[in-house]
Design brief:
mainly beta; 3-stranded antiparallel beta sheet; disordered N terminus; 22-stranded antiparallel barrel; globular; 571 residues; signal; 55% strand; 29 strands
């Protein structure tokens, strides 16, 4: 059973094993790794980002090919192991996620996984419906019984014909298709993914005149992606490597488009049983067309050395990054010293300190992922993390309890926020602090698990923004919290709940000059799966139980209490 999976509340459960070198330094949620024997690392939780947590019960429905057993940024075992040379990688660019909670506006589908049964059914079809004219459909098919390869495909649709205000003028829909494949040998693993996403919604954040043409407020995003990769799986190989490349193509209803090609390489060479040489390299070539054509590229290399022992781990290195922007006439190269020290005084209790810096890419696709109400021809500029000094403690307290506490003080150039545009306040644009913005983040997390029945994670983050040129950190919260739980009863009833809290979000109407403090957000959600037999199950989701039509972004009220129910058939 997979204990901790990260899933967007609007999408699927993600089970990718990852870790680039930078993600290893910044990771704040590897508590579950503090065990005697090494095991694959969880995907890193980015600083300040509140993510939905879900406990899923595996049915071997997904491709399960044995990954390389790597150790980069893992909590060291009490006993030395030759496997400590290995690394874990995932293709993913670094992003600025300080104070960026992402709240889904749609009803959440239930998990695609079920408790293991005999026989095991790898494929399924699910259908459901709910209030707000909501329809949900999902299908999955895969080939998993082959010894060295697997193929799977999925298709998912979720739509609401009416929204929180003005009926169909706030409707929304989301369609996703995905085809993945993996091929495994004794030496390496090949993987590939082909995907398509279509999102349609409306700019309803203002009073619309009678008889408005809905096409003038409709937005449609089409995203295509192709990712391929090769990585080492031989744990006895002295040289470890991962090479992945991915292409994303995005277009919208307002003639904006973006082509983004990223390639990521990570490698390691074991010098001794405790000493490893590391290298990471990234290349991102981006062309954005939204009016004028803009070519924006980022190249990055990251050499480092890491020493690991049962009680002490140290890493030191350098991040060198070059960014170019044809439209803004930018061609700059930066160097950031990086390092981390992790000390284990006893048991599985860790204390760590470190320093980091980087160029964080901001693209049209990443901005739309944070704020879908983005207006046309938004200025894109990368954020430079000049320095991030952090420290904290994490570990296993016994009795099923684990914890982590972290303090970070970071300085940014081009620190960005979102705010309503003018004169159309239903659209948003990014604002950048061209000086040096200082952000203090205090984070804490407490987890509890009871065998295979109950899991609970409580998180909290406090942010303090010291801005140089911006008036406020518009639409970034001061306090963010999340409490996620999962409970399994008699292998038939599976219940999950999520409680979110955000406070201190400020916004401004630049037309009237009036600033607002948005009401605190309290969002409670429940999901229930009941298994009716070997092949049938029923599900229901209750979202925004308190019925608050809160605003995450000014003038955009979300759906109140909404529900989704349906059935699933496995074959």
């Amino acid at each position: 059973m997979t204990l901790f999976n990260t899933m967007s509340r609007s999408t699927r459960t993600v089970r990718l094993t990852q870790l680039t070198l930078a993600a290893g330094i910044l990771s704040a949620s590897l508590i579950a790794e503090a065990q005697q024997q090494p095991r694959p690392a969880r995907p890193p939780v980015k600083e300040g980002e509140v993510e939905n947590q879900e406990i899923t019960v595996e049915k071997n429905r997904r491709i399960e090919l044995p990954p390389a057993n790597r150790i980069f940024n893992k909590i060291p075992s009490v006993k030395p192991s030759t496997e400590q040379r290995k690394l874990t990688y995932e293709f993913q660019d670094r992003k600025l996620s300080v104070g960026d909670p992402r709240i889904n506006l749609n009803a959440l589908p239930v998990s695609a996984t079920q408790p293991a049964q005999n026989p095991v059914y790898n494929n399924y079809v699910k259908v459901g419906a709910g209030n707000y004219g909501t329809f949900y459909g999902e299908g999955f098919m895969g080939i998993h019984n082959q010894p060295n390869y697997g193929v799977e495909g999925s298709l998912r649709h979720l739509s609401s014909s009416i929204g929180p205000v003005d009926g169909k003028n706030s409707a929304q829909s989301e369609t996703k298709g995905r085809l993945t494949g993996k091929y495994l040998t004794e030496q390496f693993k090949l993987s590939g993914t082909l995907g398509y996403n279509r999102d349609q919604y409306y700019f309803y954040g203002r009073r619309l005149p009678e008889g408005v043409d809905r096409e003038t407020i409709r937005q449609r995003l089409n995203t295509y992606n192709l990712n391929v990769g090769i990585e080492n799986v031989d744990s006895d190989n002295l040289i470890d490597y991962s090479l992945k490349t991915g292409i994303y193509s995005l277009n919208d209803a307002y003639n904006a488009s973006e082509f983004d090609w990223g390639t990521n390489f990570n490698g390691s060479v074991g010098i001794t049983d405790n000493f490893v040489a590391l290298v990471g390299a990234d290349a991102y070539v981006t062309q954005r067309t939204d009016g004028p054509v803009d070519n924006r590229n980022v190249y990055r290399v990251k050499p480092a050395f890491k020493y690991t022992s049962p009680r002490f781990t140290a890493m030191i290195g350098l991040t060198a990054a070059n960014e170019t922007d044809k439209r803004q006439g930018i061609n700059k190269t930066y160097g950031f010293p990086i390092g981390e020290i992790d000390f284990v005084p006893t048991g599985n209790i860790h204390f760590y300190v470190g320093h980091d810096g980087d160029v964080i890419r901001n693209t049209l696709r990443t901005f739309l992922g944070e704020n879908r109400w983005l207006g046309p021809q938004a200025l894109l500029s990368n954020t430079v993390k000049l320095s991030d000094i952090y420290g904290g403690t994490k570990g296993d307290l016994g009795g099923g309890f684990s914890y982590e506490g972290k303090v970070s003080y970071a300085q940014y150039r081009n620190f960005y926020v979102f705010n309503n545009t003018w004169p159309d306040t239903s659209r948003f644009f990014p604002l950048y602090d061209g000086g040096t913005a200082k952000v203090l983040t205090i984070s804490a997390q407490l987890g509890y698990s009871q065998k295979d029945k109950f899991r609970s994670i409580l998180k909290g983050d406090v942010f303090r923004y010291g801005l140089d040129r911006l008036e406020e950190a518009w639409h970034r919260p001061r306090i963010a919290g999340q409490w996620s739980n999962s409970y399994i009863l008699n292998k038939k009833l599976f219940i999950t709940s999520d409680l979110y809290f955000y406070e201190g979000i400020r916004a401004k109407n630049f037309v009237s000059g009036e600033a607002y403090t948005l009401k605190p957000i309290v969002d409670l959600n429940f999901k229930i799966d009941y298994f009716l037999g070997k092949q049938f199950s029923a599900f229901v989701s209750l979202n925004n139980v308190f019925g608050q039509n809160y605003q995450r972004y000014l003038y955009y009220r979300v759906q109140g209490l909404n529900f989704l129910g349906g059935i699933s058939y496995s074959f």
